[in-house]
Amino acid sequence: MRTTIGYTVESIGYVVGAQGLVSFVSRTFFGTEWGWLHNVVDLPSTAYLGIVVVGLALIVGGVKTRKAPERQEAA
């Protein structure tokens, strides 16, 4: 079960982080809107960096959950 949850959280982290990065780069360097995140929320450019950090935190949390050793039940 931990493996499934870890992969799910990690996958969500990749999507959130990528969308945050794409939104930051597109607004900062090109003045346009890329990705779908701008359709959900209207944030300033620097706030999208916070979205990237949230994505990275989800990735790290997913990897730690996935790699956590299973507990042995005492009989």
Q: What does it look like?
A:
The chain crosses the membrane at residues 12-30, 45-63. The protein is an all-alpha fold and 75 residues long. The protein has one domain (2-67). The chain contains three helices and no strands.
Give keywords:
mainly alpha, 3 helices
Task: Count up the domains.
Answer: 1
Residue share in β-strands = under 5%
Helix and strand pattern: HHH
By DSSP (H or I, 4+ residues per run), the number of helices equals: 3
User: How many angstroms separate the termini?
Assistant: 21 Å
Give the overall pLDDT as a whole number.
86
Largest sheet composition = none
**Shape summary:** elongated
Helix content: over 70%
The unreliable regions are none
Rounded radius of gyration (Å): 16 Å
Quantity of strands, as a count: 0
- Structural class of the helices, strands and pairings? mainly alpha
What is this structure's SSE topology?
Blueprint: H1 2-30, H2 37-40, H3 45-67
Helix pairs in contact: 1-3
